[in-house]
């Protein structure tokens, strides 16, 4: 087998495997290198997202939500369900089965599209060569016309809370608890912390979330963030803001956490502690010293707007480069780079990348927040519609939250959409399309939305931008 390729991709996460498939579809001889080994010691594709990130966490979120619904909400619907219990091992087993199915699916897609897969660690050398060290220690060098580095990211570790087998874990370890901890501490009140806290909180854990910042979900539109905090607190999550963890001490099968806030120093004891204070680019060992590829001051691979590195023919995508650390952003970049290599036109619209927090209800956003528009001195108008006024939300028994649309005060162009509510992650794509096609709020207002649906709240929010909502009293425009 020849070791010369048109494209070699380092990493088979949602950026790398998508880039490899796309490149192969465009007629380029493509290879993909992946070092991930699963719990059974088998080489697998899919990276963090499929193995220990997006997919497994959603499997646990869905299972725990169904359990919570059956335990607390079924009675309202007239469903009598008594003596419900959760088999945590079975729940985790189902999660593993889904992961295996999807990672195996990528291997089949590689085969169907003619992508050559290499198992082992890939390192970019000088001259667009890629060294692959197999799991058996054997080394080989691939030659490439183009290289795409898609090495992803890893959880950030913090000195006050060193990981301790089974007691202090990162987000990966939190997906494999075999029983529900009675007292659970979560360091980090971001997306991952809130999702994992929700999973175990629904199953009966007393959850405390420590967030060092004074602002809850600082990057989220604050009108939405306030509602989310209220909702999660009502669900039983204790959220400590401005709380900096300064030390942890393992005492037998317990962990004592020391944290400081405006009132001073405090201690709290937990059965398990999850550390999820963010992620950092994984570039260690991926780039040889003479590869020519440069990193920025935060350790991300330096790229231009089209994901080109400082070396012609070498690209980098996903969590290893600037921009939001989101699987779909990585996939989008992967497709765009493959297209560019094949000589096609391509670009990623970074202004229209949605983000979702999979708590219940979900939180989803695309475009600018109200705070960002204020800071940029952009004249804007707002339309808000609560799910409490939507018929379908009532029939679903899920009336929490709202849809918020921000539009330019003069042009009426949609600048941002923010949703807190059931299925927000599905509803947000109306906003993505609106931003992608430079729609006005009036464009959305003039469309016909099916009734009764949750999507009608998007329609009503668009109408509300100009004070024309039908199913609620409109605020008088000044």
UniProtKB/TrEMBL annotation:
Transferase in keyword set: no
The entry's keywords: Cytoplasm, Disulfide bond, FAD, Flavoprotein, NAD, Oxidoreductase, Redox-active center
Cofactor requirements of the protein: FAD
Gene3D superfamilies the UniProt entry points to: 3.30.390.30, FAD/NAD(P)-binding domain
Database matches in SUPFAM superfamilies: FAD/NAD(P)-binding domain, FAD/NAD-linked reductases, dimerisation (C-terminal) domain
Catalyzed reactions per annotation: N(6)-[(R)-dihydrolipoyl]-L-lysyl-[protein] + NAD(+) = N(6)-[(R)-lipoyl]-L-lysyl-[protein] + NADH + H(+)
Residue stretches making up the FAD/NAD(P)-binding domain: 5-334
Enzyme Commission code: 1.8.1.4
Record's subcellular location: Cytoplasm
Cofactor note: Binds 1 FAD per subunit.
Predominant localisation class: cytoplasm
Boundaries of every Pyridine nucleotide-disulphide oxidoreductase dimerisation domain copy: 353-462
EC category: oxidoreductase
Residues annotated as signal peptide: none
PANTHER family recorded: DIHYDROLIPOYL DEHYDROGENASE, DISULFIDE OXIDOREDUCTASE
Entry similarity comment: Belongs to the class-I pyridine nucleotide-disulfide oxidoreductase family.
Comment field (misc): The active site is a redox-active disulfide bond.
Protein name: Dihydrolipoyl dehydrogenase
Record organism: Marinospirillum insulare
């Amino acid at each position: 087998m020849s070791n010369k390729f048109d494209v070699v991709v380092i990493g088979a996460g949602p950026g790398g495997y998508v880039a490899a498939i796309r490149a192969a579809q465009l007629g380029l001889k493509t290879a993909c290198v992946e070092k991930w080994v699963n719990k059974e010691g088998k080489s697998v594709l899919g990276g963090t997202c499929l193995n220990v990130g997006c997919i497994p966490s959603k499997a646990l979120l869905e299972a725990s939500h169904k359990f919570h619904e059956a335990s607390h909400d079924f009675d309202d619907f007239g469903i009598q369900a008594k003596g419900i219990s959760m088999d945590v091992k079975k729940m985790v087993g189902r999660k593993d089965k889904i992961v295996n199915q999807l990672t195996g699916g990528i291997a089949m897609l590689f085969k169907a599209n003619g992508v050559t897969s290499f198992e082992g660690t890939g390192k970019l050398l000088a001259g667009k060569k890629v060294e692959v060290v197999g799991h058996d220690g054997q080394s080989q060098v691939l030659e490439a016309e183009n290289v795409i580095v898609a090495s992803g990211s890893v959880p950030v570790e913090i000195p006050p809370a060193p990981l301790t087998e089974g007691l202090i874990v990162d987000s990966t370890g939190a997906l494999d608890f075999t029983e529900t901890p009675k007292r659970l501490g979560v360091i980090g009140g971001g997306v991952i912390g809130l999702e994992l806290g929700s999973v175990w909180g629904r199953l009966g854990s007393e959850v405390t979330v420590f967030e060092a910042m004074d602002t809850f979900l600082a990057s989220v539109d604050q009108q939405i963030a306030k509602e989310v905090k209220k909702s999660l607190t009502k669900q039983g999550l204790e959220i400590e803001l401005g709380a900096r963890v300064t030390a942890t001490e393992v005492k037998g099968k317990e962990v004592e956490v020391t944290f400081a806030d405006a009132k001073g120093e405090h201690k709290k004891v937990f059965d398990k502690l999850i550390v999820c204070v963010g992620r950092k680019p994984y570039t260690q060992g991926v780039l040889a010293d003479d590869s020519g590829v440069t990193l920025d001051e935060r350790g991300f691979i330096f790229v231009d707007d089209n994901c080109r590195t400082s070396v012609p023919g070498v690209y980098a995508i996903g969590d290893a480069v600037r921009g939001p650390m989101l699987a779909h952003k990585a996939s989008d970049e992967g497709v765009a780079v493959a297209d560019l290599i094949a000589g096609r036109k391509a670009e990623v619209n970074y202004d229209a990348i949605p983000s979702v927090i999979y708590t219940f209800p979900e939180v989803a956003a695309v475009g600018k927040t109200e705070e960002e528009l204020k800071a940029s001195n952009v004249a804007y108008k707002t339309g808000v519609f609560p799910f409490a006024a939507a018929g379908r939300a009532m029939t679903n028994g899920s009336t929490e939250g709202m849809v918020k649309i921000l539009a330019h005060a003069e042009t009426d162009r949609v600048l941002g959409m923010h949703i807190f509510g059931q299925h927000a992650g599905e509803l947000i794509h109306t906003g993505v399309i609106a931003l992608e096609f430079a729609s006005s709020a009036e464009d959305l207002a003039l469309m016909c939305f099916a009734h009764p649906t949750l999507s009608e709240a998007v329609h009503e929010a668009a109408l509300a931008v100009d004070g024309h909502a039908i199913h609620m009293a409109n605020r008088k425009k000044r």
